[in-house]
Amino acid sequence: MNLVIAEKPSVARSIAAVIGADEKQNGYWQGGGYLVSWCIGHLVSFAEAGQYDEKYCKWRYEDLPILPQPWQFIVPDEKKQQFEVLRALLNRPDVDSVTAATDAGREGELIFRFVYQMAGCTKPVKRLWISSMEDAAIREGFANLRPDSDYDALYQSALCRAKADWLVGINATRLFSVLYHKTLTVGRVQTPTLKMLVDRDAKILRFQKEKYYTVSIQSGSLKADSGRIASMDEADTLKNACAGASAICSSVKREKKTEQPPKLYDLTTLQREANRLFGFTAKQTLDYAQQLYEKKLLTYPRTDSQYLTEDMGQTAQHLVSDLLWLLPFAQGLDLPPDVGRVLSSKKVSDHHAILPTAEFAKQGFTGLAESECMLMNLVCSKLFCAVAAPHEYETVTAVLSCAGNEFTAKGKTVLVPGWKEIDQRFRSTLKADTEEEVLNTLPELAEGQSFSVTANVSEHFTSPPKVYTEDAEKVNGVWEQRLRIHYNCVGTIEIPSALPLPTPDVSVNTRKGVVVNYAPCDVAI
Q1: What is the secondary structure of 178-222 as a DSSP string?
Q2: How confident is the model at residue 66 (pLDDT cuts 50, 70, 90)?
Q3: How far, in Å, CA of 293 to CA of 308, rounded?
Q4: Which of 65, 316, 440, 471 lies most in the core, judged by the most C-beta atoms within 10 Å?
Q5: Dihedral of CA 281/282/285/291: which sign?
Q6: What is the pLDDT of residue 471?
């Protein structure tokens, strides 16, 4: 008998249906030579500090640091019933092998190993590693099970991360709370993220906007601008000198450029665009994607790859052609897909990029919630864009001389719409307003050409740094993903007294759902 352990009841039910375990029992499914059960997320976790020594129940400076040796584990009360089901199944005499079918990733591996070890099991384990919950993918996964020892490095990585979270969280939180006589939660990721938010918001608070001016000259549809001018008097002088004068085109530079199609989605880029276009938080996007994965409509979402393996070329080709009729914005679209652009086995680690499944191509949007439909549309449009032709355009930069000063005019002409046609079609279906590129096509220009121009002055102000959002681009590289994932942290962080702030105890709503409270203190956390 083989015991299959999934991460969630819904996943266990899907696997059981495929492998013939159709007899429902108390906490598991049975049939076809299989037992299929499940965890409920993290069934087993690290013990609290007080379990190692009763003295740690009180927070005292002299007890720090707390360094468990060996590490101890607990099963939370609300999860004990399902753990006992798994323990009993793992130790049943007729179970001779185990299949780890928790989510195919770092956390999934940790969840299984903790249960397996705490149950005292030593039976051989194989690993089910799939990127889709479709029936065909499950059958293929069971036909290609690998020894779980192949994933020892992945488990060690997850274990290291979990221990680091415990050590930093327990020790640093107790340290700063004891030093400053109030609870100050510190986390391995939370605190550096909050520090970034504080630094950016402090810059915004200190920002002093500065006024500047530009002078524009115009002749028909041709408009050119000066650089920044600090004083109104200087701008007026230039405007008066140019009004009614002649401007001469001193140089024209034309460049043909190509913008390659975007890559497919990994989880990070999907979260970023879903936030920008729909206002979804990172957690919402992950939750919706996980639900779609469990409904067999989306491939595994927790991926860091934006490519497909090279043996998926034909699959991608069929997927594109099957999806074209399904998406309203793609009706009548001529799309000969270049799937080779998204194939690179070297750039796929644990899982390939996020894709709709063949099951979705058959089922469509039937029965899906609005949020799930929005996410599926987004993933499909990205697939179409990724395999479409490049976007080609020509830029024109003209320099005009007038009254001894130079003015610059810039224009852009689309030569081949390529993938941007698909992107614009998709965006036109969105309820929310989205930024549309405004093309400025310049008239035909030649060096030495002369124009009679009018002139005017416009007033502008410098802008403060932007607040961080879930749509933030790279923030010092490594922090990009963490900032989005921890967007919903609401907390208090202390700022060194030396940092100049307008007033003490300032609460700033840095973005929807996030409040950072500033309060002067002597050290930085």
Answers
A1: HHHTS-----TTHHHHHHHHHHHHHHHHH----EEEEEEEEETTE
A2: very high
A3: 17
A4: 316
A5: negative
A6: 65
Q: What is the DSSP letter of 356?
A: B
CA distance 310 to 339: 10
User: Taking 50 as the threshold, does the pLDDT of residue 509 lie above it?
Assistant: no
- Can you tell me the distance from the alpha carbon of 481 to that of 486, in angstroms, rounded to the nearest whole number? 9
pLDDT exceeds cutoff 90 at 296: yes
Alpha-carbon span 231 to 241, nearest angstrom: 16
pLDDT of 115 higher than 80: yes
Confidence (pLDDT) at 432: 61
Enumerate residues 6+ apart whose C-beta is below 8 A from 369: none
pLDDT per position as a tens digit, 217-248: 999 999 999 999 999 999 999 999 999 899 99
The whole-angstrom separation of Cα 418 and Cα 396 is 20
For 225, 299, 357, 518, the CA distances from 134, given in Å and listed in that order, are 58, 9, 8, 49
- Chain centroid to CA 290: 14
- Do 137 and 298 form a contact (C-beta atoms < 8 A)? no
Nearest-angstrom CA–CA distance, 494 and 507? 12
Residue 491 has pLDDT above 80, yes or no: no
Active site residues: 300
| CA–CA gap between residue 197 and residue 443 (Å, rounded) | 46
Token pair recorded at residue 204: 């915004």
CB 110 within 8 A of CB 158: yes
What is the pLDDT, as a whole number, of residue 435? 63
Q: The pTM is what?
A: 0.76
Produce one character per residue of 468-491: b if its CB has 16 or more CB atoms within 10 Å, e if not. bbbebeebeeebebbbbbbbebeb
Token pair listed for 249: 């085109």
